[in-house]
Amino acid sequence: MRFADAGDVEDTMTTAERVTNRKIGVIGMARSGIATAILARSLGGEPFVSDSGTAEHLKTQTDKLRKAKIPYETDGHSDRLLQSDYIIISPGVPASADIVKKIVSRGIPIFSEIEFASWVCDGKIIGVTGSNGKTTTTTLIGEIFLAAGFDTFVCGNIGLPFAQVADKIGTNGIAVVEISTFQLEWIADFRPDVALILNLSPDHLDRHGTFEAYKKLKYRITENQSAEDCLALNFGDVDTMRNNITTSANKNYFFDGDDSKAKVFVRNDELFVREYDEVKSIIRTSDIRIPGPHNLQNAAAAILASVEFGIKPETIAGVLRTFAGVEHRLETVDSVAGITFFNDSKATNVDSVCYALRSIDTSIYLIGGGRDKGASYTPLIEHGKGKIKGVILIGEAREKMFEALGREFPTQFADTLEDAVEKCFELARPGDAVLLSPACASFDMFESYEQRGKAFKQAVVKLKEGHRSGETVTD
Ligand code: ADP
């Protein structure tokens, strides 16, 4: 909902007018909901937090709210929520939820947490979205800006809510905000100075219905940008390129190939930036520490954002040489008996698994499965052919994945992740890789992808200990 449609919350208002003495309903008690409520309170607003979860499950959160003297309710949403001037909604609550429909039907404006935080942030905003690579690229941009001496705040979907830091970001500060599709669903005036759409591939279709609907939401990142702002797009990504995005921003392209239209591009294994007629070298691709073709794209995107702020090539190159990536993203865990184990637990969609398969040069035993998100698994065949020696499937999606992959690759089921690791170890030979890259969400068997990745790493440690002490690993 735009401010123009939003009754008495006008975009000409100051932050104080938008927040002070306003009744602000907050739906969802996760990290961003709590941060929103605390920020609202500190600005003189009257937050009220509501969550449908049980009091027992939300004890840690309610303790925090009680300490901050913020009223709340659990176990459902009462009419008090509907008396709010506007609502800030957590990214976890879908637009199809009954409470959302009720709020919309009453004409109460709904905003996302990044929208709310952006009212308060006085610094520049770099917004990073896309189907894959957001956390890696956001972290990398953050590192480059820190190295360049900027007062940098890396936040958003990455774990530290934007609302938790927004009031600390002064006019010289930079917010590097990782943004999920869910957070774009309820923006109104959110306007990043630099917006990056890293790539688009089918994801979260369980929530957004169609790929088209999902893409439309991603494009919202640029809807309030103007000619002074930059929209960075991936020149090699079919979907961002084909769907001519409507924008008033200055469009710039980053590319892992060579094209005169791209501002950041690769020529003869070297990354360059084109500024007006001048072409400057940044770094040889072999000097970039994070591996794989996808990370070359992420590096190119980060370079584009950095040069927009005048950061020098040497500073950018220095960070690219040392930045080791983020845990659970194609992370090399260890080698046992000459077999290398990779933890790519964050590969929760099919495209990221395709990139993992492309990034590893040896034969691979792939561990996949978890909670299905509605996309087709068949792209894995093309990228896995000649590389995948075997597939071990776990979790709810295993039958569906078996349907897609079972005829192409030797495929087995395992009941637990630890079982899957042991099965792979039995099958693999020295020089092979075992890759956890599930193409699915983790929630059927784990609390989060982090917990799944840690369980994988623990299983590898156990395997190594067993191997060292000469035990035989059995089913
Ligand atoms: P996001 O925050 O968008 O989920 P991450 O950086 O956490 O992205 O990476 C998620 C998964 O996607 C990991 O498996 C990672 O190896 C893979 N990945 C990272 N960057 C890209 C990219 N540009 N294209 C495709 N896959 C990627």
Q: What is the CATH architecture assignment of the largest domain?
A: 3-Layer(aba) Sandwich
What is the highest CATH level, the class of the largest domain? Alpha Beta
Distance between the termini: 55 Å
Largest sheet: 6 strands, parallel
What does this structure look like?
By secondary structure, the chain is of the alpha/beta class. The chain folds into 3 domains: about 20-110, 3-Layer(aba) Sandwich (Rossmann fold), CATH 3.40.50.720; about 120-320, Mur-like, catalytic domain (UDP-N-acetylmuramoyl-L-alanine:D-glutamate ligase), CATH 3.40.1190; about 330-465, Protein-Tyrosine Phosphatase, Chain A, CATH 3.90.190. It has 18 helices and 20 strands. The strands form 4 sheets. It has a 6-stranded parallel sheet. It has a 6-stranded mixed sheet with strand order 15-16-20-17-18-19, sandwiched between helices. Helix 3 links the parallel strand 2 (about 45-50) and strand 3. Helix 6 (about 135-145) crosses helix 12 (about 295-310), helix 6 (about 135-145) crosses helix 13 (about 315-320) and helix 17 (about 415-425) packs across helix 18 (about 450-470). The longest helix has 20 residues, at about 450-470. The protein starts with 14 loop residues before the first helix and ends in a 7-residue tail after the last helix. Adenosine-5'-diphosphate binds next to helix 6, helix 12 and helix 14. Adenosine-5'-diphosphate binds near residues 351 and 352.
